[in-house]
Design brief:
The protein is α+β, with helices and mostly antiparallel strands and 366 residues long. The chain folds into 2 domains: 106 residues; 242 residues, 2-Layer Sandwich (Alpha-Beta Plaits), CATH 3.30.70.1660. Helix content is 50%, strand content 20%. The protein has an 8-stranded mixed β-sheet with strand order 2-3-1-5-4-9-10-11. Strands 6-7-8 form a 3-stranded antiparallel β-sheet, with helices on one face. β9 and β10 form a beta hairpin. About 2% of the residues have low confidence.
Length: 366
């Protein structure tokens, strides 16, 4: 671990220099008057802060150890010798812990500090049962958010004829919500006896989840000239119109091809605001994926890839088993997890991702 830290030290010094530079720039009058520039600097500063503070603490520990050893070399007082030796022992024990925390902070994804996310759930294969399963997943995530003290907002939904969900889009806000939920992205397969099954046969169906970081207008500027906005009448199950006025909104971002529709509100302006929130997250996520692919293969192999086509988890009701295929984790408390008790899954996935990032980091620095 120490050798890895030593190889990273030049990079850490450059991060600290950038951190100091950001602090200086934030004090400049022209930056203070520009909301966009200030927000960008504040976000970058927030991404660097934990790493820089740990680096400074680790450097201070090393200096204190060296200074104490130098003092011990110049004294013959047995009491001072004992006190100095005890201090050095404590500091030497603290150093590996700080190095470990520093490596974790340095290796973490740049978006982990984001305090808001967009969670999209869509019914997959399985017809009506898939839509019921999608509704169960949405309920689970809402309950998990409530247990964490986060706020959820329904941005859009499309219900099925059996009162399931073809699609639901939630906004989640609260400290650490994206960092905790980001590994939910992917395919969720369920094996259970549907309520519509008369012969007691187990069916397999699926739903897909995507968790995107929420970004503000300041963090991602979208030009009005790049948007095509269409209004239409909202519809319910079966396609029937539920509004006599065109309150639903469809926004197309022409440069990226991203299309977002929102019809949850009766107000056209509210639907537009929600659609823009979803659009910003999808465009940001698309651009981030391009950046990650341009970096290294290691970044693409992390479990937070968010690929909806990847089956990440199986929910087996007859065995009361939840299996996360990415980390080979089996939990035998399916009802509790489905009630929002996702803590064990979240903790295991974050720990695994942290270990993978540090391993990849070691490969990158040689």
């Amino acid at each position: 671990m120490t050798s890895l830290f030593q190889r990273l030290e030049p990079k850490l010094i450059r991060l600290e220099e950038r951190y100091v530079e950001i602090d200086a720039r934030m004090g400049e009058p022209e930056i203070a008057q520009s909301g966009q520039q200030m927000a960008a600097l504040m976000r970058e500063r927030g991404q660097l802060e934990e790493t820089v503070e740990l680096f400074r603490r680790l450097r201070a520990v090393a200096k204190e150890i060296a200074a104490t050893r130098q003092e011990l070399a110049t004294t013959s007082d047995s009491q001072l010798q004992a006190m100095g030796a005890e201090l050095i022992s404590e500091l030497e024990a603290e150093r590996p812990r700080l190095e470990n925390e520093l490596l974790s902070a340095y290796a973490k994804d740049e978006d982990e500090t984001i305090s808001g996310c967009i969670l999209e759930v869509r019914a997959g294969t399985g017809g009506d049962e898939a839509s019921l399963w999608a509704a169960d997943l949405v309920r689970m995530y809402v309950r998990f958010a409530e247990r964490q003290g986060w706020r959820t907002e329904l941005l859009d939904e499309s219900r099925s004829a059996v009162d399931g969900l073809k699609e639901a889009i939630l906004g989640v806000s609260g400290q650490g919500c994206f960092a905790a939920l980001r590994f939910e992205s992917g395919g969720h397969r369920v094996q259970r006896i549907p309520t519509t099954e008369t012969q007691g046969r187990i069916h397999t169906s699926a739903a897909t989840v995507a968790v995107l970081p929420e970004v503000t207008e300041v963090e991602l500027e979208i030009r009005d000239s790049d948007l095509r906005i269409d209004a239409f009448r909202s519809s319910g199950p079966g396609g029937q119109s539920v509004n006599k006025i065109s309150s639903a909104i469809r926004i197309t971002h022409m440069p990226s091809g991203v299309v977002v529709s929102c019809q949850d509100e009766k107000s056209q302006s509210k639907n537009k605001a929600k659609a823009m929130k979803i659009l910003r997250s999808r465009i940001y996520d698309q651009e981030k994926r391009k950046r990650d692919e341009a970096r290294s293969e290691a970044r693409r192999t992390l479990i937070g890839s968010g690929d909806r086509s990847e089956r990440i988890r199986t929910w087996n009701f007859p065995q009361s088993r939840v299996t996360d295929h990415r980390i080979n984790l089996n939990l035998h408390n399916l009802p509790a997890v489905l009630e929002g008790n996702l803590d064990d899954l979240v903790l295991a996935l974050r720990q695994y991702d942290r270990e993978q990032r540090i391993r990849n980091l070691a490969d990158e620095v040689g």
